[in-house]
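Let us work through a complete example step by step.
Step 1: write down the sequence.
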Amino acid sequence: MLRKVGYGLGIFWILAIVYLSLIPASPLPYNVWDKAQHFFAYGFLSLWFFVLARDFKICAYYALGFISLGIILEFLQILVPGREFSLIDIMANSLGVGVIWLLRKSIFKLADILD
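Step 2: predict the structure and record it as tokens.
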């Protein structure tokens, strides 16, 4: 039951990222805080699903899926008024996923201790 709630919250987080990525906005100048938001959004998403899965192969699929999601959303932003494609956003998204991927074993150990 708790696992289903966890996946439900994770799907909500994915939908929030999609919504916030595709709503019309005013173009912003380069902003480090914006890139940090990308990093943390995708990092937290990865952390959430990795802890739920705790399986190397499943986590690898999640990582590839989240990186792909970030790339697809950046391309879709070309079609949204006030949005634009950004390679730096893709790098920030992917870096968020990548850092959690590298830390996953330590995160799993911590999750086991807290369990």
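Step 3: interpret the result. Helices lie at 2-22, 32-53, 56-76, 87-114.
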